[in-house]
Fold these 4 entries.
Entry 1:
Amino acid sequence: MGVRFSTEDVRDDVRFEYWLDRHRGALDTDLRLLSGRHPHFRASCEIHALGPAEVAVLSYAGSPVPTAGEARRTARDTGRPDGYEIKIPLAAEEFVVSQGDRQARLDPGDFAIVDTARPSSAIVGSRSAKRVVSLILPRVALPVPPARVADVVAVPFSGRHGTAALVSTLLRQITEDADAYDPADATRVSAALVDLIAASVAARLDLRPALPPDARRNALLRRIYAHIEQHLADPGLTPAAIAAAHHISLRQLHKLFEPEQHTVAAWIRGRRLERCRRDLADPALTDRPIGAIAARWGFTDATGFHRQFRAAHGTPPGAYRRLMTGHTP
């Protein structure tokens, strides 16, 4: 379990001062309200270790009056190693990250990078609830030359497409599952996230060939897994189609999956069967024919689907549905 603190932990008359003190000590940043009233201030923070990185989730309650706050990191010596902080608003009408002469206005899901060795600030404001994630990692963990990372600090990375979208999606998932990771899982998840951040930075700077081979491979693999998940319903999702979508040969695709202990086709089949299993166990979908569920997830051959489902789950799909929902057609 990570570190948690909240304004609900103390009396109303001291909660803002308590929040300032805990925020400064845990995140090495000074905080001040730019507008709004202290009586309306409510906030909570969760901090989790993620391998060599640290992820902090800050949540701010909505307010009946417009509020805004600024978190400012100074250049004071903290004894912590230099590194980078990746900031992603998951919910906020306004979020602005600044460092040097740059300023990035971020929509929910977008992210920006700041150098923790230099002064920076982040401003968040709105009436509605706000949720912001900060990922702090050592400088040596990011396999991109620091001089080049400096070219993209306080620059917005869109969370709506490309590798940056995978960063946003994975970090959002991490915030929901952080307590479930054991140390080994946390290290692997952290490595995957850093590879995607490095790939996003390299793509922005056109440095992709300069990335270490493992980082390039892992980032490409994450993109392929995400592509498969997004297109499971498409019967045309085949290894050849995946290779073409990622501008690699079919041979390269199969080689990429060699260390994964499953082939591309086996992964697609397994994910489709899992989606079908979930639908068959859903009481809200008992009126949907089994063939329609199979077709929904890309199976075009009913006989083949029944055979594969039985092989994977030890029972035919109809029997599985009856067992899970009690529904008898």
Note: The CA atoms of residues 243 and 252 lie 8 Å apart.
Entry 2:
Amino acid sequence: MIDLRSDTVTRPTQAMRAAMARAEVGDDVYGEDPTVNALEERVAQMFGHEAALFTPTGSLANVLAVAAVVQPGQEVLCEARAHIARAELGVHGAVSGLTMRTWSHPTGGVDPSVLADLIAPDLGPFFVRTAAVSVENTHNFAGGTVLPIADLRAVRAVADEAGIAVHLDGARIWNAHVATGTPLIEYGGCADVLAVCLSKGLGAPVGSLMVGGADAVAEARVRRKRLGGGMRQAGILAAAGLHALDHHVERLAEDHEHARVLAKACGTDPDRVATNIVTFDHPDAAGVVARAREAGVAVGLVGARTVRLTTHLDLDADQVRRAAGVLARLVG
């Protein structure tokens, strides 16, 4: 089976497994795992922030990051298809006690004037107060689109003017970095808190990080334990992340090229594919998914009419060509 459902399906490379096997470990809940500490320090520096916190999942990293800047009863603004609004099972409301309002944008981006109009000031006991805006880069359900650094800076300026925080869901920020050449530290400079993932495009088996100021991360460490996310000898997992940062970032360009090959096969303009995700609408999307699987290609269904293909490091050029042939026969 050629698996295009997600870039989360990858398996650790032999070199990554070797790095995990030799990792020096300790009890991370006590802050004594040297490999976790090294990963957290490295990622914080990469994005120009004071600290970072290793978490088992990207959803938990997002929960901790948003909760660091939005109190219960306040709201966060985000795009209507944002991962925090659509794919985290309502955890921000159910657990953190916050609310959301959304805007819609064809590529998952943001119009600064629309954002400015949405922001609700503190009006006492009358309206929910906007505490933060969340942006996603790359945007998953918009097809892996990249939010340009100029747009992020515009969001930062609007937020600063209104006195609210910026959360960046950077699960695939590495893809945006490779696609545009924008330094990671510039992305980090546009946000108060970030969530970045190691188990998607970078191919680690587990792990994300919440990134931010030292006080925010210290509070997040308590929340992580409260939510059951404290891990013990987690250096075995952190070592996979360190290996991925050393070896799997620049190779993301291969995934982006593979995605354009698949897009062309599906009748989608490859020039509109920015990173490693291809989405297209089809009147019988579920049927396409089923027939592709019968032909040996697993693809994702992310809406009643929307099919998603995601390239990753477990795919070689021959597999991509074979998958493209199957998809061309079905939908191209």
Note: The mean pLDDT is 97.
Entry 3:
Amino acid sequence: MAPEKKSHRKPAIIVSLSDYKRLSRLAEAHATRDPEVSGELLSELDRARIVKDDQIRADVVSMGSTLRFTSDLGEDRTVTLVFPGEADIAAGKISILTPIGAALIGLSVGQSIDWSARDGRVYRLTVEAVEAPAVDTVAAAASAEHRTAS
């Protein structure tokens, strides 16, 4: 008898209107350079519930959020979700234009999602804690995103 293949439905996600607009433009701008990750991000944005910026809960992963997640490999990591120009894996800054970055956007504490690494393997991660971005971080991210898209 063949082993059962687990299939998990993707969890409901929430994205602020400003993140939705910026990330849609970013994904479209990178569609020819990296169509796979760009497509994954657009797919996540398409299924998100979009809310006004002042209605996004603090426990939802947004651009600039610092979060802690655990994985099915036993990892326990704390990272900050950033635009590509700010990414620095050594400093724990994960780009939204990576498979894991696209998977994290919009998740809230307690939610799990499967994501495909660049090597094709599928991993499951669970968001354990989220710290909302500081207001000045959001402004800096918008400025960085503007420079990246230009």
Note: Residues 1-5, 145-150 have pLDDT under 50 and may be disordered.
Entry 4:
Amino acid sequence: MLREDVNARFETGFLRCRFVSGRREFSFISGLTHRAILRDQEAAPVPVAEDERRTWWMFRGRFFWEDDGLTADEVRALIHERDRRRRRRIDRAIDLMLADEEGAGGPRREPIPEDVRREVFRRDGGRCAECGSDELLQFDHVIPVALGGASTPENLQLLCAPCNRAKGAALA
């Protein structure tokens, strides 16, 4: 598990430096090593301290700890995923706020009728029309509603969430 450590920091002294996380204080390192960490952590996660259970990493000015024995590439991938999720959450919150400010009574799409949903589900065999998955299924408009597509069995297909996201609002 990778966690951000907001209490971690470097404490610098005369010609040497020490990594501190909360009440834990680690061995002193030279000023040269400290400068190398600060330089290298801009491009890739750099391990800065280790104890019997955890490894602390620095990446782009932030500190993280993990106890799974991750590599620098794995740490970078997990941080990237976390930052993307956070950005999407913020973007959704902004969109909701703007929609509320424009008025909650704005245009809404009519739900797909239940009989049409059943017919499409039976026709597609309860599986994604693209990859065959039977998980996270969603009804997708082949011609998007925004482009004039109707909620008819001929214009609907079952897609799993990953395939539906990959398609976006494009024509299939």
Note: The mean pLDDT is 90.
